[in-house]
Amino acid sequence: MSKILILGGTTEASALAEALATRGDDAVLSYAGRVANPKAQPVPTRIGGFGGVAGLADYLRNEGITHLVDATHPFAATMSRNAVEAAADAGMALIALTRPAWTAEPSDDWQHVADIDAAVATLTGPRRSVMLALGRMHVAAFAAQPQHRYLLRFVDTPEGPPELPDHRLIVDRGPFDVAGDVALMREHAIGVVVCKNAGGTGARAKLIAARELGIPVVMIDPPVLPKRVQVEAVADVLRWIDHAADLGV
Ligand code: 3Y8
Ligand code: NAP
User: Fold this and answer.
1) Long-range contacts of 149-152 (CB under 8 A, 24+ apart)
2) Most CB contacts within 10 A, which of 83, 123, 192, 219?
3) SS3 (DSSP) at 70
4) All domains in the chain, ordered by first residue
5) CA-CA distance, 203 to 221, in Å (whole number)?
6) pTM of the predicted model, to two decimals?
7) What is the pLDDT of residues 156-188, one digit of tens each?
8) What residues are in contact with ligand 2 under a 6 Å CB criterion?
């Protein structure tokens, strides 16, 4: 009998949970506990870190997990690396459910950078109106460029004010829509958008809005992840679970 652990936190993870619940599979979805009220799921959830590779390997064994699905965000590199190691330790089948990186269209004005620090460096120069669509974790790095007017978008209201002298804070969670992001960028006269190349549909609206408004984008490339079996469709995960079960994996 299969028991599936989904490492969640993305639109794809939620879609997989929905599909597994519909089939009546025994599954649990795991959140890190990064936001106050994570989205409700149609399968049982667990919230919080496992305690590194060893903690995850113990969880897999103790909970009788038979299939591990890493459906975390492309920038959740530590979790994905831990999943590869823990699956190997526990002799567990692992698959990643991910999404392809976004690619620019001819009318887009994107500057690709390797990481947050490189994105900060692109903002050297006179004051601009900058939309930081990066969430809460990386705002402090942009204090190195305090001259700008920043528009921030967080999932939760932060305990203290963000450390940027001139900022506006929107508290909202995706998935976002194009009309909403066009209105937001117009209202704040955004001159540049800084974002992660997250792929998927939940955060893509801002890129379409930037394209419509002719706004340049600083696009942070995703981290390199370890080699693992990976697919981009829920149906491929279901086939993998059923096939592995046939083989008695
Ligand atoms: C806690 C759990 C679903 C999943 C929805 C996706 C889409 C909407 C768009 C912008 C970009 C950003 C951020 C974003 C999006 C989806 C997806 C996605 C980007 C929730 C969620 C959790 C998180 C964690 C949160 C991070 C932050 C990143 C905001 C749930 C809502 C910027 C990533 O306050 C914090 O500490 C937030 C931290 C990690 C990145 C950061 O650096 O701040 N996601 N987001 C998960 C956990 O605890 O394990 O409630 O749904 C999930 C979603 N956020 O099922 O519908 O699939 O990616 N999430 C980015 O892509 O750049 C917003 O504003 O345009
Ligand atoms: P990360 O940096 O790769 O992971 C840091 C630690 O958080 C992990 O070592 C693990 O702790 C814990 N963790 C991460 N994801 C977890 C999960 N799904 N279940 C249980 N523990 C988890 O991760 P992150 O970038 O902070 O992302 C955290 C969560 O937000 C993930 O669910 C991810 O899918 C979601 N998310 C992240 C982004 C992003 O931009 N990073 C965007 C959208 C959604 P232990 O070592 O103690 O096990």
Assistant:
1) 149/188, 151/184, 151/188, 151/190
2) 83
3) strand
4) 3-100+224-247 (3.40.50.720), 110-220 (3.40.50.150)
5) 15
6) 0.97
7) 999 999 999 999 999 999 999 999 999 999 999
8) 7-10, 30-32, 34, 49-52, 55-56, 72-73, 75-79, 82, 196
